[in-house]
Write a structure and sequence with these properties.
About 45% of the residues lie in helices and about 15% in strands. With about 120 residues, the chain is α+β, with helices and mostly antiparallel strands.
């Protein structure tokens, strides 16, 4: 009984239906918040770090890198998550910066802000 009650309370607090499948944004933010590698500062996680974890999850195993990045941009525009640009690239691993680069309409992003949403 307490397990069901706890699940109902969690669903009420998070606004998610009990038993609901986590959304793309939910999974991306959960991975970003749990990341220990590919992190810059306290808040920023390289996009490629999140991709490396997400693509191995069964729900997302068929997603391509291009689709992943397009979904990130869509979620960013919908204010479901926040993307950020790498400005201090000299202090960063160039391979992570290059692998994370996500461009759209002249803007480039390299990070997911794990605390913004």
């Amino acid at each position: 009984p307490s397990t069901l009650r706890d699940a109902l309370v969690r669903g009420w607090l998070t606004g998610r239906e009990v038993g609901a499948v986590p959304s793309f944004t939910d999974d991306v933010l959960a991975i970003a918040r749990a990341a220990r590698e590919g992190v810059f500062g306290d808040r920023k996680v390289f996009i490629s770090t999140v991709w490396d974890v997400l693509r191995h999850r069964p729900a997302w195993s068929s997603i391509t890198l291009e689709d992943f990045k397009a979904r990130l941009v869509t979620a960013h525009r919908a204010k479901q998550l926040e993307l950020a640009r790498a400005d201090l690239v000299a202090a960063m691993d160039p391979a992570l910066v290059a692998a994370s680069e996500t461009t759209t309409e002249g803007a480039s992003f390299h990070f997911i802000d794990r605390e913004a949403s």
